[in-house]
Amino acid sequence: MRNCARAVGSGFSRTLLVIVLAVAPDVSAQTSNAAKLLREAEGRESALRMAIDTRKAGSPATPLLERARTLIKAYEDISRLFPTSPYSDDALWHGGLLAADAFWEFGQADERTTALRLLKLVPARFPTSSLVKQVGPLVDRLNAARVVVEQTMPKQPTVMLKAIRREALPGAMRVTLELEGEAQTFPDDLVRQIRVGRQIGTRIRVVLDLTNAAPHTTYALYNPYRVVIDFAREAPAPVVAAPVPSEPKPNGAGGFSLSRQLGLGIGRIVIDPGHGGHDPGAMNDGLSEADLVLDVALRLEKLLQQHPGVQVVMTRRSNVFVPLEERTAIANREGADLFLSIHANASEDDRARGIETYFLNFAPNPAAEAIAARENAASARTMRQLPDIVKAIALNNKIDESRDFASLVQSAMMERLKRSNKNVKDLGVKQAPFMVLIGATMPSILAEISFLTNRQDATLLRGAAYRQVIAEALFNGVMRYQRSLKAATQTVASQ
């Protein structure tokens, strides 16, 4: 892909969530944060340009174009969020240049429009910028360019709509569109009834009429190809019958959540082995975090399955990539009572060791920020979603129960692992903005079971016996949390 700008620096993309925690109103803080964001965006751009340059002939261009559009928005957001930073004009220039190159590469008129808009903002907002001289020639080239859309973008293959199914789930209404093959999808706000009609040409329009606005999730499944839309609905209020008087145990905050008031237990738990597929996580001499935590998760599943009344749902059972956002969505769709994400820690200091357990909240220190940034690196979210992400964390109503869950898992881990590893360190219960926990409607935690980068810990982690010990420790933590909820014996009937 052609690049007529200054060389783009290297770097790895981190979560944009952590960055908002460091934003301060003073100019020096804005400059520091803008510089950091710009470097990260430039690193992502380098990877994108390499992917475009090495794209095989005939391969679909849409995924690369979408990546470019996301990155262009990120550049624009940097300039918008830090308007007084000396990097604001650079961000506009990078975004405009990338949009121009995307237009010449893919021939889409939208990119030409975006490029012209962003480039013209440079002299308008920053008339003394050194980039102003470079804007004029590029704008002239774009104005003179001939827009070719249909010929350059590969046409999406026509697929047949085979069936539409509607099914009532315990906490949602699911609509499934079964297709004969993969179809192009478009983000749009979407069931009183379902209407299907043929539009001009070979296009089929499916309309879902809702009785009222409802949160929904849309995702694709394969073999067979399906587009699934889940609409959330309010669960019926539980009916509490004749409680037996007893002294309930408060949570760590001294209060009583509804689950504690009702004495409810754990019926379904989602276990999330971190990373997977093209995202191996931390590495140590051939041992990947993704493989390690999957093995521990499967061992934990077997232990939980032996406990009557507990159903286990896994976010993955093999070395496949599952987006961070989808992992939480799985837990919500399945109506889980608990969400446990399992990870292995890493540090530049190979002497670092120990275990720690996190619940969702803003990071209170640089160490928590760094860990969240590493674990969130695979997130597909962009800066445009930053306000929604911050709001989701701030309004998280499961903090107290998640903190209790994390505390019980951490203590169980320490008690069990000390028998096999006398040098294990208790790093405690901490909070950080992990993307995989955002949006969970149940108590949710992320357990860092050991440091894969520590030589002694890595040696233990390679053995099946120590992995089984970790699984047993996690199981003990879950059971302790279960017992803490059942401290008040009550009979609950749901209808």
Q: Classify the secondary structure makeup into a structural class.
A: alpha/beta
Output the CATH homologous superfamily of the largest domain: Zn-dependent exopeptidases
Strand count, sense and closure of the main sheet? 6 strands, mixed
Query: What coarse outline follows from CA principal-axis ratios?
Result: globular
Sequence stretches where pLDDT stays below 50 over 5 or more residues: 4-25, 147-154, 185-190, 239-249, 251-263, 374-387, 389-396, 488-495
- CATH fold label of the largest domain: Aminopeptidase
Assess the beta-strand content as a share of residues.
15-25%
Number of strands: 16
> Tally the helices: what do you get?
14
- The percent range for helix content is 40-55%
CATH architecture of the largest domain: 3-Layer(aba) Sandwich
Structural features, described:
The structure is a single chain. This protein is of the alpha/beta class and 495 residues long. It folds into 3 domains: 16-144, Alpha Horseshoe (Serine Threonine Protein Phosphatase 5, Tetratricopeptide repeat), CATH 1.25.40; 161-232; 240-485, Aminopeptidase (3-Layer(aba) Sandwich), CATH 3.40.630. It has 14 helices and 16 strands. The chain has helices at residues 16-20, 27-53, 62-81, 88-106, 109-125, 132-144, 258-262, 289-305, 324-333, 366-375, 386-394, 399-417, 455-461, 464-485, and strands at residues 161-169, 172-179, 193-198, 204-209, 216-221, 225-232, 239-241, 268-273, 283-284, 287-288, 311-314, 338-345, 355-360, 426-432, 444-451, 491-493. It has a 6-stranded mixed β-sheet with strand order 11-8-12-15-13-14, sandwiched between helices. Strands 1-2-6-5 form a 4-stranded antiparallel β-sheet, with no helix packed on it. Strands 3-4 form a two-stranded antiparallel ribbon. A hairpin with a 3-residue loop joins strand 5 (216-221) and strand 6. Helix 2 packs antiparallel against helix 3 (62-81), helix 5 packs antiparallel against helix 6 (132-144) and helix 12 crosses helix 14 (464-485). It is globular, with a radius of gyration of 25 Å. The relative contact order is 0.11.
